[in-house]
């Protein structure tokens, strides 16, 4: 693509700015591990929330969501539950506070607050480090796929997608290495502002260029309907026949079954708590448990502009590129809708801003992932097993090396991935299947011990890696119960075949984290020693707030899309639901938050 000099200048200035940001923050990040990996726990919750949202506003995910909205219409807004996106609601209501009460640096270090210091605890730390590194590298593969294809379609030099991906990964790695968490958060906020401006531009362009009648002519019946029957019932055969083949390949035609599987999987995965990635790192970086809850709530609100972008690009693609997609040889590449739209519709200046904003989105996801992965390598492997007495300066230098190593592995494996969709499928339904049950049990069952955690995690991870070699990407969701079952079996057998954890460790966890669940023997011991102790925990209160929170979050997703397609009545209902659920959460959640 040929870019105007103004657009090229905007992109170059942005890339230079983030490198300078890393140089500027190098001294502050080098003050120690807390400063490098957690920003010294001094960053306000709303800034961390915007940063976290920016990290989720990635190119690969946006390209995938555009293709899902194009193909499935409003029903496509349910598909982010594959991650699941509503895990942020579980974090907001209660889990972020549970995590933050530990005061540690990484998720693996947090394991010590649950399982103590015995051999089982040590094995469980190793298991979470293995999972963290595999998941971090998987996310880098996913990001590599997205940014390479995007940059090759837009940037003016005749380079391959792999070359662009390696170049942009190198630039991002440079400022992450130098600035640590401070660099990540500050650039994330700057990137979020750019992305919000770009999203508003895209929404305005879509609404000015696509009248309701034009859209109606290129979509099947039921495309605008959020709800669904047993089957999808979207007949694309007379419009774009290749869409029918995509729906079949995705395996989403029996949509009620897919929705129920996403919901059940999502609830279990969400109750397991945050995965050991940038999401958990933001929680641990907050000033306290109350701030961690507010930060997680900020994420859902801050992602509203993303849906203006997704809706605008999908509508423009439907109106102006349906014919081009229809005549593509072989399967139509729906993941390239976004490059098509931006290349065709955006004026000089806006094009540069949008491309820079989307590159910023990629960098935001990438920088957070690299910073989180380096924390595990340095804090939980190097500092714990190789050089426990390493100076702060040496630890920072090792962090530089760990970041570079993670990026190299991600690049090498990223060249082997088939597509964004397949990479995402492996992460959200393969790998997370093995993570779910061990991490669910660690919160809610006193008899679950370090050995159970180790065997549960290892069983799930190995099963997921085996299935990835023999199961088509479109079937990952249906095999989630297999990986989850393997994790459950390993967890229960591993726990019941070994001794319980030390009661002192269990009491320390119970009194500091204050979870609800099956903690009877531990609660009895605590009550005997501290008759006045109360956890203040309530499963009914938290889970009812979660249910309302999910409805609140979904209303914030569909309202921008209804705005783009000018469905005013539906948009009004979505906004009314958003207001009503906000009031519920204000009185039954926000007003109940306390400073620990």
Quick structural overview:
With 596 residues, this protein is mainly α. It has 24 helices and no strands.
List the helices and strands and how they pair.
Blueprint: H1 5-29, H2 33-38, H3 45-56, H4 59-72, H5 87-100, H6 107-115, H7 119-154, H8 161-209, H9 212-217, H10 241-250, H11 255-271, H12 278-285, H13 289-302, H14 304-326, H15 337-345, H16 350-386, H17 392-414, H18 420-444, H19 450-470, H20 480-496, H21 503-513, H22 520-529, H23 539-564, H24 568-588
Helix pairs in contact: 1-8, 1-16, 3-8, 3-12, 3-13, 3-16, 4-7, 4-14, 5-11, 5-12, 5-13, 5-23, 6-7, 7-8, 7-16, 7-17, 7-18, 7-19, 8-14, 8-16, 8-17, 11-18, 12-13, 14-15, 14-23, 16-17, 18-19, 18-20, 19-20, 21-22, 23-24
CATH class reads Mainly Alpha
Rounded to an integer in angstroms, the radius of gyration calculated over CA atoms is: 24 Å
Largest sheet: none
Straight-line N-to-C gap:
54 Å
Computed structural class: mainly alpha
User: What's the pLDDT, averaged over the residues?
Assistant: 83
- Counting DSSP H or I runs of 4 or more residues, the number of helices is 24
What is the assembly state of the chains in this entry?
A: single chain
Q: Helical residue percent?
A: over 70%
- Beta-strand proportion: under 5%
Overall shape: it is globular
CATH architecture annotation name: Up-down Bundle
- Count of distinct structural domains: 1
Number of strands: 0
CATH topology: Sodium/glucose cotransporter
